[in-house]
Design brief:
One of its GO terms (molecular function) is zinc ion binding. The protein is α/β, with parallel strands linked by helices. It is about 25% helix and about 30% strand.
Length: about 325
């Protein structure tokens, strides 16, 4: 079968012919329909041999694609609660706090005709459209898990700031609006993404300029110098982390998702009194079930830009350039 593989670190992926996988006991063979693309893929492609966090953890030579959805093609022995032809998404719970091998990240992923996964990692969406559900398996569910870190703080009269309104941040805005009555500030450096934030419910949009200084001043002015109760940073540069610290109110909470390698100095006077800081990585299968339920109920907007399997590199190029409209999803016939 044809697959799109990361053959070596620091080089673009390549189309290769590989054997069709076969399901073992307790496994499911998925005929791939949709695979979402992610900035993490670009981070892996750009990794130099031996570099952190990927190339020092596992070897290149695996099929990319970690946002996967399709149809059951074959069941391994002992799998009796799915049927051939049923639509499923793949969910592999990430180990928090460290990079580990997952499908599409060290292990063969879904940019191929078929994918084998353990039954425990296949979640039925019955007759749902895999193209819509594929981005939920990482972008949406990772944002959902992070928002769960702050929802208890967001009572009526409180506010939250989301920094970075890309594939994850757009979902983050929606989850906070669905689950809380908080006032939402969306922060980004691109007007197009701020427009999307307004479209999905953000109450205030703030342009990230001058390394965040102007955004900090604007948020503090709009909150009458009170600051915000919760900040979720989907970027993770030194500048965005500095902004997060600057706008937090006392006893606030900052949650970091972005993996851009920024650092934040923590000391008296650098962070609001009793402000908490957390790093959120990955999600759980229950998170994914709940996110899928929101889509089925029509409560979550999912924007995708479809690409054919022979245009995977084009999709990655547009992802790198920031010119996508919605989440890039590679769709198989």
């Amino acid at each position: 079968m044809e697959a799109f593989k990361l053959v070596q670190w620091g080089a673009p992926g390549q189309y290769v012919d590989v054997p069709k996988p076969q399901p073992g006991p307790g496994e499911v063979l998925i005929r791939m329909k949709a695979a979402g693309l992610c900035h993490t893929d670009l981070d892996m492609v750009d990794s130099q041999p031996g570099s952190e966090p990927f190339a020092n953890s596992f070897d290149a030579g695996y099929i990319l694609g970690h946002e996967n959805a399709g149809y059951v093609a074959e069941l391994g022995s002992s799998v009796t609660d799915l049927v051939v032809g049923e639509a499923v998404v793949h969910c592999e719970a990430f180990r928090r706090g460290a990079i580990c091998m997952t499908r599409g990240c060290g292990l063969d992923g879904g940019l191929a005709e078929f994918l084998v996964v353990p039954r425990t990692e296949a979640i039925s969406i019955v007759d749902g459209d895999p193209v819509v559900y594929a981005p939920l398996t990482d972008a949406a569910v990772t944002a959902y898990h992070a928002i769960q870190n702050v929802v208890q703080r967001l009572k009526p009269g409180t506010s939250a700031a989301l920094i970075g309104i890309g594939g994850l941040g757009t979902y983050g805005v929606q989850f906070i609006k669905l689950m809380t009555a908080a006032r939402v500030f969306a922060v980004d450096n691109a007007e197009g993404r701020l427009k999307v934030a307004r479209d999905v419910g953000a109450d205030e949009t703030v342009r990230f300029e001058d390394d965040g200084k102007r955004a900090s001043e604007q948020i503090m002015s709009l909150t009458k110098s009170r600051g915000v109760d919760a900040i979720v940073d989907f970027v993770g540069t030194a500048e965005t982390l500095k902004l997060a610290a600057a706008v937090s109110r006392p006893r606030g909470r900052v949650v970091l998702l972005g993996m851009q390698g920024g650092t934040l100095g923590v000391s008296w006077g650098l962070l609001a009194t009793s402000c908490e800081f957390a790093i959120s990585l990955g999600s759980t299968r229950q998170d994914l079930r709940e996110v899928c339920a929101l889509v089925k109920q029509g409560k979550l907007r999912v924007d995708v830009q479809e690409f054919s399997f022979d245009n995977v590199q084009k999709a990655y190029d547009q992802l790198r350039a920031g010119s996508l409209v919605g989440r890039a999803v590679v769709v198989s016939p």
